[in-house]
Amino acid sequence: MAAKKNSSLLKTIVNLAKSLGELNHRSFLLKEELKALQLRGNEDSAFLKKRTGNTARRADHRRALKDHVEYLAHMQCLAKQELEQVERLSIEIEQQIGEIMRSLSNSIVRSGHASRGPVNAIPFSSLSRSLSPSS
What we know:
α1 packs antiparallel against α2. Helix content is 83%, strand content 0%. The model has no long low-confidence stretch (mean pLDDT 81). The protein is mainly α.
């Protein structure tokens, strides 16, 4: 019975680790997207500040570009919100994995399968941070 429970806990850890890896990848992509949005917004804003002739066509172009800069700012805000959510989820998953690992190691120690004493696990948060693509 304990072996099935331990197997189930290991499967849960693997599934959570997979989710954490996907979240870390999404976090990396969001950070890259934020950089690109910031750069594009800065370039477009700089273009708007240039003094050019004041023809009707250029005025239309400037209005469209201003709208585009506002759109980029909105997209940047949404990306930041998603990044915050992804980071919160990553922390929650790391905590869940830590709790399951502690439970599993305690179960192993109690069942007498640990021949060398208690299992000293590496804190998962430090491991996942070192494996993160943004490091």
